[in-house]
Write a structure and sequence with these properties.
With 369 residues, the protein is α/β, with parallel strands linked by helices. The protein has helices spanning 2-30, 34-56, 61-90, 98-125, 162-174, 191-196, 199-203, 225-230, 266-270, 289-294, 313-320; strands spanning 128-136, 145-150, 179-183, 210-213, 234-236, 240-243, 249-252, 279-282, 299-302, 326-330, 333-337, 355-363. The strands form 2 sheets. The protein has a 6-stranded mixed β-sheet with strand order 1-12-2-3-4-5. The protein has a 6-stranded mixed β-sheet with strand order 6-7-8-9-11-10.
C-alpha cells in the first residue's frame, strides 16, 4: 500500500509540473482568464486519469485511447519541459523577452510532442520483418532447412485489435513458414476484447502449425486461456515439451512474472527432450541464458523487452538483459529476442519498431561440418 501511495504522490507532483508549464504557456496566448483556467485544468485532470477510467468504463473505448495517448504525452513532456524551463531562465540574460521565449518555446514543444506521437504511432502499427539465419549442428529427418516465423507481445486488446491481427496473419502467410512461434503476451491482460473483436477466427487463418507459450500479460483468470488459445488455432505449451515429426523438440515455459506461478524447472523439461536433436525453447522473458545453454537448448526465442519501446528506455533494458533485442550466440545456445509485434500501455514506439521475426534455420550434423 505504501508503494502505491508514493507512486500516486510522485505522479501528481509530475502532473502539476506539466500542468503548471502548460498553463504558463496558455497565459502568453489567451491571458489569465478564469474560465480558461478551469477548462484547462479540468481537461488536464481528465487526460491524466483517463488510463485508469478506461479500465472502469470498458464500454467507452475512446477513453482507453485518450489514456494511451496521454501516457506518451506525459513521457515526452518530462523530457522536453526541463529544456524549455532552462531556455526561459536563460532568456533573462538576452535581449529576448521572457514572454516571447515562453510563447515560442511552448509552441515548439507542442509541435515536437505531436511529431513524436505521429512517428511513434507509425512505428507501432507498421511492422517490419527482421530475418536471422541460424545453423543448428544437429541432424533432423527430412529437409535440412526450416523456415520459422516468430511474433511476440501482440498484446491483442482495445489498442491492438482486429486490423492489427489481420496484418499479422497476412504477413506470416506471405513468409510461407514451416512453423510459427508465439512466445507470450498474446493478449493484453483482458481476454474480453480479444474475443469480442473476433481475433481467434483471424489467427486460425495462419497457414502453418502454431505453437505458443504464455507471457506475463496472458493472465486473465476469468477464462481458460489454454482453451481460448487452442480455439485460436494454437498449440499451447504450458510447461510442456513436444517433439515434431522431423525430430525437433519444442519446449514452452510458463512465464516467470508472478510469485504465485509455479513452473517446472528447465532441467526437468529437458529430460523429455532428445538432446541429439534440435531443441527450441519458447521463454517469454529472456532470462537465464546460462541455464538454457548448460541444459542443451539450441535456440531460445523470447520477447517481453519491447526493446524499451520508447527511447531512452532501451538503455535500461540493455542493463537488465544479456540479450534485450536481436541475436546473441552463447556457446551452442542461440538467443533471438523480438521487440514485439504489439505494444504495452501506449501505441508508441520510438527507437524501436513493431516487428515479425523470420528465422532461417539450417541443420548440419557435427560430423559434416
Amino acid at each position: 500500500m505504501g508503494f502505491f501511495i508514493v507512486v500516486f504522490v510522485i505522479y501528481n507532483l509530475l502532473l502539476f509540473y506539466i500542468g503548471w508549464n502548460g498553463w504558463k504557456w496558455i497565459q502568453t496566448i489567451w491571458g489569465n482568464k478564469r474560465s480558461t483556467k478551469y477548462i484547462y485544468w479540468g481537461v488536464l485532470i481528465f487526460f491524466a486519469y483517463s488510463f485508469m477510467l478506461g479500465r472502469w468504463l470498458e464500454a467507452f473505448q475512446i477513453i482507453t485511447w485518450v489514456g494511451a495517448l496521454w501516457l506518451g504525452i506525459f513521457y515526452f513532456s518530462l523530457f522536453l519541459l526541463p529544456i524549455v524551463n532552462l531556455l526561459v531562465f536563460l532568456s533573462r540574460f538576452t535581449c529576448f523577452s521572457k514572454r516571447n521565449v515562453m510563447k515560442w518555446s511552448g509552441l515548439a514543444t507542442g509541435i515536437a510532442i505531436c511529431c513524436l506521437l505521429v512517428f511513434g504511432i507509425f512505428n507501432a502499427y507498421s511492422p517490419v520483418v527482421r530475418t536471422y539465419t541460424v545453423n543448428i549442428p544437429k541432424e533432423v529427418e527430412g529437409k535440412q532447412s526450416f523456415n520459422i516465423v516468430m511474433a511476440s507481445d501482440m498484446h491483442f486488446g482495445v489498442l491492438s485489435g482486429a486490423n492489427h491481427a489481420k496484418k499479422l496473419v497476412k504477413e506470416i502467410n506471405s513468409l510461407h513458414p514451416d512453423l510459427v512461434l508465439f512466445p507470450g503476451d498474446i493478449i493484453d491482460d483482458d481476454v474480453k476484447p480479444y474475443l469480442d473483436k473476433g481475433i481467434p477466427q483471424i489467427l486460425k487463418q495462419i497457414n502453418a502449425p502454431v505453437y505458443a507459450s504464455f507471457g506475463n500479460h496472458d493472465r486473465d483468470q476469468s477464462a481458460d486461456l489454454v482453451k481460448v488459445f487452442t480455439n485460436s488455432g494454437m498449440n499451447v505449451l504450458d510447461d510442456q515439451t513436444v517433439e515434431l515429426d522431423n525430430g525437433i523438440t519444442l519446449i514452452g515455459r510458463k512465464d516467470r512474472g508472478y510469485q504465485d506461478v509455479v513452473r517446472a524447472k528447465l532441467v526437468d523439461l529437458m529430460k523429455q527432450a532428445e538432446v541429439t536433436k534440435p531443441v527450441i525453447l519458447l521463454e517469454h522473458q529472456p532470462y537465464d541464458l546460462d541455464i538454457a545453454e548448460n541444459k542443451g537448448v539450441d535456440l531460445m526465442v523470447s520477447g517481453h523487452t519491447h526493446r524499451g519501446q520508447i527511447a531512452p528506455m532501451n538503455m535500461i533494458t540493455k542493463k537488465i538483459y544479456e540479450n534485450d533485442w536481436g541475436y546473441l550466440k552463447r556457446g551452442q545456445l542461440q538467443s533471438i529476442v523480438s521487440s514485439g509485434y504489439g505494444f504495452w500501455g501506449t501505441p508508441i514506439q520510438i527507437g524501436s519498431r513493431a516487428e515479425i521475426v523470420k528465422i532461417k534455420v539450417t541443420f548440419k550434423g557435427r560430423n559434416n561440418m
